[in-house]
């Protein structure tokens, strides 16, 4: 085997059968030279070589046939695949449908499904299925846990074979848009929309285009000042408007097929329209008009809040901010603007309620943002399969309408009938050999793409697919690993912050416990624990955040008796002696869940160790090392959280376990 | 006035009189060309020019006379000055005595003392009076709050007019040794003892020598590996011994008059003898033998402790570490080794007991280390005049012998009759215009030097000298500023950590409160606060640290009833309801001291504002800005500490003040 410079993740195409009969590929109304079709056929060749040792032939005779047929009755980017003993027919209406269909066939073949049993018809749930890189041009990655950037280094861009593999991976799970640079646009990154970088961006964009992926860039709202030498970046200033129009014309001319801009404005120190007394809508619409002539879109992040809050202030509530800043302008955003909204109102904690802005807006394009980079969820050291969390978000009923009111409905466009809609993830990749630091974290990368393409898939289906494609092991081992993935989020939640309160992490780093780490900070992130209880009153007697939801959610969240217990401390300040539905007191729940979570983390490590003989030794070692760190982390969380609450509440653990 | 690039601090020589009669300088048995004498006369010229507008003349006639006489009856580096109407006579046995005598005359003249009233005889209390720079070669300064290094930048050294002024300042307060680089020696700094830097170091050393100052370097204990290509740096390895011998020969040949090495070994990740199962004495003595032929010395830091402690471990006590690691080898250190011992057993907190190693060692040269860089004492934003703290340290009776048992006795050499003894300060300078960030922080720079030279001076005498020399204002204003300085340490202590517990600071940064910031850390820094009380039991029932002292200190510290209250929480875990001698409970003391401390910080700011008309406007503005920050900091400390203990103890403030 040749030495690899990076892994192939779930596209390893490990041998599944000795049936090495060659394949013939026939195209009807597509050309094999069409750029994405061409990539699809090349991928098919890779797949059958790996799975069967077979090749593609032009000869007739004893061959299987893959017939690709253009069929305009198939949805955009959808496909229909149907097998029989002699081969498979793939129907699609566009090139992306072809490549997604090919990857679907390869998934089936990898799962040892017989040709004649292949039968699937698929259409993407979401029009936009995006990855957001937080890669900086110095090569660092904000909240990256898998090495450095594979796009940038030393304020320059590079494009190589790894970039091609990356595009393959993304296409294989249905991703059709990628923002390559960090939303915090500073320094050289401001120049990505100038001649300094157009050639390199174009080179990368061409690779992405071969895989049906549009390239997007995060932009600096202050670019008219920094690049244009203007005095202001006021979105209503004529000079600024003209500058963005001219700049966008240049961008789309230099980068034909370019997707548009992602903007983080007025957030955590970034410039934005507020500086000039303008609204978020003013900012977004001005840019939208500048890119509209070229079919471009503006993705505008809603992560706007007061990040210089006084912890003594019990009235201001960061959780309210997104809704408060954006709701009033619902309907004013132009058609090619889409608001990117984080799944929760805070910031990617292991447990948050669903953002009330999702569905709170009823006349605005909405893009759901999740984070597979495990910033608060274990840094890709701790195992935390996030798809169950994303499913909860998608399945959440907002009650924004009588039907089609789930988050999945809203971000797919079903609720409002809009075309600009979808899901985006802050990606968890870097230039590590295995792309994701922890090999098992690739399940989130794979899973997000699959889920964004088909929100009906279950967490378990996705986990099983990923396990089967990634590893070459027996069914019992697959079951075990799938089970580990499925439990992992709950385990992580147990040993970290209880019942939705969040934020008990080491400041800045966001790994490991620090119960008071964000308690007296400026970030709006408080647990308000005292001798008697813990939690933030967000009911109508508190900050009123619960009232941002539609009924019956608002009433349920408002009442500690009705509030879902996993969110109890997010919405209410609760005494330690409060009885939970289980009969445990709150304090006892804190102790129990932390002891359990730690024990379960140890069990995860033991389960992994039991797979030693069926996993590649290097993969095994890398992951085993991380499980050791996870167990240490879980112990630290258990002991710090339990000690903190014991020292504060003075209530002993009923079970008499060691609390320090 | 010409634009200055940096201030002259206390050597501003502001005009004191219109009597501009010139001076004639006569030297007996010294030559005006002697390098330090030459500097002294040049300084005298600067002084009389500033004070009087006078000059030095060779003419006789109507002139004052400064007569410098070599007098071998005067102690090393001492001086005798005696004025009469016609001038002043300065007697000294060596060149350093001459320059110190000149600065003493200038101090008197600056204080408007009449010539005929000048009369002082002085001899340095301490043979070594040193500054330790924590300057890194990239220009940064570890724990620096006054800009960047004025020695290093971009891995190179520079020497310029500012360096000369720096040497003048140091000589003016009696400093005779300076370590120019950080004790954490990494990267380029390892090469300071190689040809790469010898020329530059020599250039700097020559400037220092003009002012009677020896230059020292911090070295990397692993230099034999990093520079010499050896496999080990084991101090008993013959190759290592030979390497250091050859290297030291080279160093002293290239740098004639070089002082020696400062070593931080086996501390906070630095390499050291422990790696090879050797003792600290093995390491120090090996190096000492290598420099002995050239009159060099080894300054060996005692800051050795376990910095990967488990917070769950109530037995291990960082406070014990210095004594435990070094006491057993008392008497084994070679004569040219001196142990540098921090004033307290922890790390420069605003209140600690005196290190039991001081005087605990009775057969070893000891150098007291203090920190005027305000790492834990307000970052040169908050006013904190540290001389009262240093006085407490010097005046502390260790009971190591029947007489001459104070720390001042020990580090002066009086206790043991040793010659190698003294005081060192981690310096608070940088390349800021005013050298010390906060102009008022210069009082600590001035004060340390003066105190190291004469430990009998009171905090007030030093403060008054510094105020008079630095500012040109009326007596009432001088009194006010002096009073501000004298109160400031107590004020800082009040609004920060109570009763000696320390460490409630923001991790890493060490500015601002974070009550639990170091509570669950690896640094051995815990307060152990729970619902009932706070403090660390270091009595014979706890870690036994109190027993490292001689009697009667050991018994006093061991008993909470006898323990000095300002150290109560350092030595004991005390219930919040404990009655202090004032009648306050412990918790009420915490509240009261924090409210008082904050109010007093506001008063300091108000006092400074009242000096607006008598202080240079730029100085006023710089300091006023810092007082604003100090008040904000004091509020944050007050509120976080009070909230933390109220939330934990559930005991209300008797006075009903606002606690969040």
UniProtKB/TrEMBL annotation, chains A, B:
Q: Name one GO biological process term.
A: xylan catabolic process
Q: Which residues form the Glycosyl hydrolase family 67 catalytic domain?
A: 115-435
Keyword Hydrolase in annotation: yes
- Name the Pfam families for this protein: Glyco_hydro_67C, Glyco_hydro_67M
Identify the keywords attached in UniProt to this record, alphabetized. Answer: Hydrolase
Domain Glycosyl hydrolase family 67 C-terminal stretches: 436-657
InterPro entries, per the entry = A-glucoronidase_C_sf, GH, Glyco_hydro_67_aGlcAse, Glyco_hydro_67_C, Glyco_hydro_67_cat, Hex-like_dom2
The terms describing its cellular component in GO are:
extracellular region
What is the active site of this protein?
268 (proton donor), 347 (proton acceptor), 375 (proton acceptor)
List the SUPFAM superfamilies: (Trans)glycosidases, beta-N-acetylhexosaminidase-like domain
GO MF annotation, one = xylan alpha-1,2-glucuronosidase activity
| Superkingdom in the source lineage | Bacteria
Q: What is this protein called?
A: Alpha-glucuronidase
Source organism phylogeny: Bacteria, Bacillati, Bacillota, Clostridia, Lachnospirales
